[in-house]
Batch of 4 targets.
Target 1
Amino acid sequence: MAEVIEVNDIASLQSYHLAWTALHAETPRASYFQTLEWLECYWNHCGEGKRLRVLIVLVEGRPIGILPLVE
């Protein structure tokens, strides 16, 4: 069964960096704008006053999907 966790702190996403990179490598036609590095850059320049919500889907403790959202 899948589990969804929410991460709201950009620094906390570092623990998912390897998994994010692996998922990106498996994604057909993936772009730089789908990377953690892009999200960090965006957040550092445009995140003030906004709320970060990154949903991470886990199956048996392994990330199978990551969805970054900004409110």
Target 2
Amino acid sequence: MSDLEYLKIMTGCDNTALLAALIEEAELRILAITGRTLLIQALVPAVRELALCAYNRMGSEGMSTRSDGEVGISSAFEDIPKTVEQAVARYRLARVGGAYHETTSAG
């Protein structure tokens, strides 16, 4: 199943352009965090989860904490969920001599 099909199922949204943009942005963020230029298969779930989180946050950008004492509702958003952060951390490339060294295979 493609990332786009996955997000369509998970969100119920048919806006292909929006979902593709969210996937692209999530992929770029994951690549930046890991120092990679190629997305390896092991990082695909993290891209999907980050794109889904971005979709769910639409309309509440910039909110870090919200609380409504009358109804007992409290909300807080992290920049990147801990589950994604932990999954991505193990695939970060080390810098040696000030540069990242990545194999050319997408493995």
Target 3
Amino acid sequence: MTPEQILILIRGLPGSGKTSFAYLFDAAVFSADDYFTDPETNEYNFDGSKLSQAHDQCRVNTHDALRAGQPIVCVANTFSQRWEMQPYFNMLETLALDHVRLFVVDLFDGGLSNEQLAERNSHGVPLFQVRKMRG
């Protein structure tokens, strides 16, 4: 029997603590932001025209970690709409990964105001964008 694995999708506004929460686990942690972060310098350079590729890479990394038997895999993305999580739900179904327990953790705003989120997020998402994302 295949040992149980856990996939945790962590959603929330920028600055809500998604990545910090993910690192509380002894887990492989992925996010679309990884695509824009230079692994050598840890410098973040966002390019909105490459967002689709960033999410594709995040899904590939998640898939590979699950297939390799990583016990806990966390994906920390905004996931502002349910459809954005759907590829991960589909991944578990199409790969017949029925031994993987799925959890969705919604941090929303982490109890913070728009101003606090804009100040706290590590990728420079401006206040107007945080307000727009909150809805």
Target 4
Amino acid sequence: MISNDFDSSSGRFMIVLRPNQSWTWRANLYLIASLLVVSLGIGIFFVLQNNWLILPFTLAEVALVAACLYYCVRRTHQQEVITLTQDAVILERGIRQPDERQRFHRYFTRFFVKPPRYRGHRQTISLRCRDEETEIGSFLSEQEKQQLIRTLREVIAALDHPAKDNSSG
């Protein structure tokens, strides 16, 4: 998902990139709870049959599924914020707050779109400043990447050719 914002007072463009979130954490909790109820029912049935060894493995299985779901949901909450001004390009990455922040001088910064290396792979969009290159939007779909490319072109054109002030006095 791509959202952008323009602050006309400061001349700052902000592009926020987020992966698609198919399920909420609450929906995942319902899934885990239903798996726990079914697994505990089966485990208790076997405990009553004197097969007590099934119950710990049942609980370990549900715990592993819950950990995997947590990891997947956490990955869908990451975001990248690209801020473009007349002088700088700032890339921030994180989940609730920026964990990583990179600042580049806009004059030396370029955005590159690389075609896929192999058929069936996706193209990559990267930000390059001098010798440092960083991929952006790796979690975006092809359509979202095309939208990001169009948005970046529009923003860069707007920053390169600001509206002229017609007031003379």
